[in-house]
Amino acid sequence: MFTWIHRFGSAPNVYRLSGVLAPWFGVSAALCIIIGLYLGLVVAPPDYEQGESYRIIYIHVPAAWMSMFAYVVMAVSSAIFLIWRLKVADAVAAAVAPIGAAFTAVALITGSFWGKPMWGTWWVWDARLTSELLLLFLYLGYMALRGALAAPGESSAPSTTAARGAAILAVVGVINIPIIHFSVEWWNTLHQPSTITRFDKPAMHISMLRPLLLMALGAQLLFFHNLTVRLRTGLLQRESRARWVRELAIAQSNTPPGDNTPGASSTVVPEKPEPSA
User: Fold this and answer.
1) Are 260 and 266 in contact (CB under 8 A)?
2) What pTM does this model have?
3) Is 254 inside any structural domain?
């Protein structure tokens, strides 16, 4: 039933597929973000209540959405690693963590810039803001745990203890995601309720909603672009002694300069010397 998972557990296959998809994700993300920013910052009219200051939503809202989406990806990958012991799943989780932390930091910073003119303060211990800050700590804790439990002298791949410990933290921490999402409904909070994901219809005018959705799509594509790039690098580091990495290095050393073959990597981690007997 779950044999399809093992098909994506091959590091060489994932490496090659990521190399093919990465440029497409990058170009698509750039187009969506450029068009979305133009429509949101230039074409969309000012808000009748918040004036021009509302335009920060075109950065804040996609970043907040992606901070939660990235954590779900990290948690699911960690669960797959714990259950099926797929090293590629652990590599995906490790690659997602810094990306999710960056999106979370952007969401918190832009939220503070938005909150100052709206609430009169940079920060309040609001339920939504506090749970989002906890999400950032979960990302940082995940990365710190992997580093703290790493095997001494091994920089290419984490120890089994580090990988398992970080994976368990990621799976347990996923409980914070519904708290972030429903915090504005469960508690009396300053943060405004959802204006897009509503059962009837969005509370935004189409001229404001269209660029927001474009920016959200651009953020999603940017996430996958960064993920594929980081995943390729992580796989090379983890599999530096594997036969397919050596064959890839030999193939690239024989590639003429200027050959931009899709899926080719410009950097290959050199093979570690074998320990002497």
Assistant:
1) no
2) 0.86
3) no
